[in-house]
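Changelog-linked ticket: coproporphyrinogen III example.
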Amino acid sequence: MEDSKFLRALNLQPNSIPPVWFMRQAGRYLPEYQKIRKNYSNFLDMCKQPKTCAELAMQPIERFDLDASILFSDILTIPDALNLGLAFYEGEGPKFSNPISSPDDIKKLIPFDINNLGYVFKAVEETKNLLPNDIPLIGFCGSPWTLAAYSIEGGGSKNFNKTKKFMREYPNELQNFLEILSSACFDYLKQQVLSGVNTLQIFDSWADLLSDNELERFSLKYTRMLAELLKKDPVTADIPIILFEKSPNKKVEDLVFKEITCVSLYWQEDIERISKNLIGLFAIQGNLDPKVLLRSDESIWQETKRICNVMKEYPGFIFNLGHGITPDIDPNKVQVMIDAIRQ
Ligand code: CP3
């Protein structure tokens, strides 16, 4: 692992060529993924097959020779383990059959038990068995807030109106739920580390639903609580933490905190300004707009080079997309981006 460019960057050490991996690197844009995916009608059933998860995690590593691998799973495994009844059917987003509709549903929740997620930890072990020694494995979870939003809404949504209504009517009960989720996320990430992951990423994908005060009260408070628990536990204390916040109504500089190692920038964030303010303090991951990969090779090359040039002198830069890659992207376009980074 000493010669991992990715881990060097997380330690704020310089790399002449930046390490690269990207969100949703194993996914529907890859024909080799589609080939396996078509054997399952419910995506979650595929996530419950550790050997398949390991094989899927390896696909983008083999195709693009990336510098880090990410566990193949989903953030919604935790609410599923709380018996909210998750399923993902063709062409639909996630759906919960028993969402959190009232404070009573929070009271009635079964205690979180990591043994219900044994398939995830087996997937970590299987993936570590296949990965080359110098390629680190990233484990992850959703932020407590993002998990609460899906659990209350009952699935994906444009504006999460049910969640916002719940937040206004039952703020204290929501906070109880966020505490349950924070502790579940901690147990879950710790067990991922015990199973072999080298780095952790927390996805706060729905931070942008919240106003400034709400962000502090319902999201950041619990993400920090989670990071603090990780830093206090000897098993996880030395594991780098990457935080992804999607376009929050707050400057990135004002939401980072000392327990995290790296901030993963959403594509709308101004990497140039942020890098000037965070240099020497945090590693930065980001942040090419995934939609750029739908443009001409020349345009991909230009945008990729622009980011690399801005970050050339930044110790601790990891090239990534500013959000997950989408199914409409041609893998050859990804290769153009990678060639631009490495040339
Ligand atoms: O390659 C990787 O990045 C690793 C695996 C991974 C998946 N989901 C696999 C997946 C990771 C890290 C995630 C995180 C995740 N899941 C997030 C946070 C990141 C973000 O995008 O903001 C969120 C919000 C989810 C929840 C989720 N999972 C949704 C809303 C959906 C459906 C919408 C969509 O993009 O399809 C998923 C499904 C999902 N998770 C797929 C994959 C590969 C596609 C499933 C399929 O093949 O049908």
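Closing comment: Example verified and attached. The mean pLDDT is 97. The first strand starts at residue 69 and ends at 70.
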